[in-house]
Structure formats: structure tokens, C-alpha cells
Amino acid sequence: MSSYDKAVENLLQAIKQHDSVRYFQKAEQKIKAFPELEQQVDKMKAYQQEAVLYQKIDKQVAKEKAGEQADQLQKDLSELPIVKDYRDKMQDASDLVQYITNSLETKINEELSNGKR
């Protein structure tokens, strides 16, 4: 295993052990414990797809109705505490990954501009 591969593996392990990632994984498990939520999400996606289809065939009233139903389901889901918690934890984990990505990009660009390879 090269030093690069070792560094990547160490980084992955550190990310997996970070609190924000672990909290997100726990929140994700809680969400998965409620199949009703997934059914509601699937129903919302179906309404969204219907709205797109109705728009393509120029059925404006049907498009608006399907869009309203999708929007209402999305609003209802967004107000659930378990969904709010999941989104908060997902945002924290995403922020961590974004921070690491930006830091790596900055360091690599500095190294390249300084002639190191």
C-alpha cells in the first residue's frame, strides 16, 4: 500500500469516527425505522413527477394540483422533528466533508503553485 493510499485510508477512518458523521448515521437509522416516512417521500416524488408530466402535455390545472399536493407533503415532512434532526445532522456532516475538501484543494493548489509534486 502506497503512502497515498495509507493517507486516504487514515482520512476516511477519521471522517467515519468524527462526531458529526456518527450523529448523522444515528439519525439516518432513526429515519429508516419509520417506513411511513419513506412512503410519504415516495408519494411526494410521484406527485412531483405527475406535475412534470402534466406540464409536458400542457395540462396546467392538473400540473398545479399535483404540484400543490407535492408541496404540502414536503411541508408536512419538513415539520416533523425526526426529519428536522436528520437534516441538521446531515448538514453538519456535509459541512465537515466540504471543509475537508476545501482544505485539501487549497493545500494541493499551494503545493502545485510552489512547484512541489
From TrEMBL:
InterPro entries: Bact_com_dev_regulator, Biofilm_formation_YmcA, Com_YlbF, YheA/YmcA-like_dom_sf. SUPFAM superfamilies: YheA/YmcA-like. It comes from the Bacteria. Pfam families: Com_YlbF (PF06133). This is YlbF family regulator. It comes from Candidatus Streptococcus faecavium.
